[in-house]
Every structure is written in C-alpha cells, then in structure tokens.
Amino acid sequence: MTAESLSPPEAVEETEPTPLRMRHVLGTFASGVTVVTGVGGDGVPVGFACQSFASVSLEPALVLFCADHRGRAWPRIRESGRFAVNILAAEQADLCGRFGSSKGRKYDGLDWELSRWGTPSLPGVLTRVHADVYSVHTAGDHDVVVGRVLALETVTDREPMLFFRGGFGVDRPAPRVAVPDLWGWGDHWG
Asked: Which residues, 6 or more positions from 161, have their beta carbon under 8 angstroms from its beta carbon?
C-alpha cells in the first residue's frame, strides 16, 4: 500500500459521553424494536418498548434485554420471573408508541392474549420469545436481564420495525417518521 492509495482521513468528532450525545451517536446503530411483556404479582399485565434485545447463547438458549431501573413495568416483571419479547413489525408504530409511553393504559382496547406461559402475547408481531428470568446484572441506570428461553413463536414474516437516528426505518428519505414526544427523557422504558 502506498501513500497515494490511502484515502484522506475522515473528519472525526470526539465528545464526552453525555446522555444526549450517547443517544445521538448510538442512534446511528439501527436496532429492532420489541415490547417486553409480563404479568405483575397482582395479575395485571405490564409491558414496555425495548430496543436493547439480543440473543446471548444457543446452548443453553439465552436472550437478553436491558431495562431502566426507573421504569414501572420491569420491576413487576422481575417479581413474576417470566417475560415475553414481542418483536414488532414495521407497521406497528402505534403498538410501539403505546408501550413506549409512560402515559395511558397499555392494554386498554388492545386485542391481546395470555400465552400458555402466563405472559401477554401481542397481536400481529413478527416473533415471540417466551423466557424465564435467568440472571440480572446491574449496569449503570439499567439492568441487563438474561432470560432462559422456554419457547419461540413465529407469527408472521413481514418486515421488522427498525429504529434509526430517532425515527423508524432506514431506507426512507429524510425526514423519517419522528419518535413521538411521548418518548422524552422522562419516559423510562422498562
């Protein structure tokens, strides 16, 4: 390789990792969108929109999600020890908004069913992952929740919902669909 074949250096912007900067920079990583659901100890269904979801291990079958300590749903799901991850389809922005907001009753008027594992199954999602809480690790203002997979359900084969740079989808020209104001810093997913 010669000096002539090297491309010019890229402009690099380095900044301190403030919450706003973290949100902006890490928003360049497109992620799927899920709704983690469960039933609290009082039998009331709960759930929250979650982008931090991943497969961890094939044997044993483990997945993870991250939930904010300040959220209302995650502590109730943790009590029960069981959850479902509902992976959203591209056209389910309304479902994402419903579970991404701290306002309103998430299940009111929603056609959902209780799965045989005792977790809420949301309608029309791509996939459902049913799991028991396997371990919980505190990491800053979130918990990293590892779940042991009990069952996998493929519901449909439509396009997935992707979250990228504060909006839904990556292949649309700007402006992308904006995240509703309901998803401010005061709304703590989880």
From this structure: 32, 33, 88, 89, 90, 91, 92, 93, 96, 168
Alpha carbon of residue 16 to chain centroid: 25
DSSP code at position 187: -
Per-residue pLDDT in tens (0 to 9) along the chain, 190 residues: 555 555 566 666 677 778 787 777 777 766 789 999 999 989 999 999 998 999 999 999 999 999 998 889 999 999 999 999 999 999 999 999 999 988 878 999 999 999 999 999 999 999 999 999 999 999 998 999 999 999 999 999 999 988 767 667 766 444 444 444 444 434 444 4
- C-alpha dist (Å) from residue 7 to 1, 3, 14, 132, 190: 11, 9, 20, 50, 44
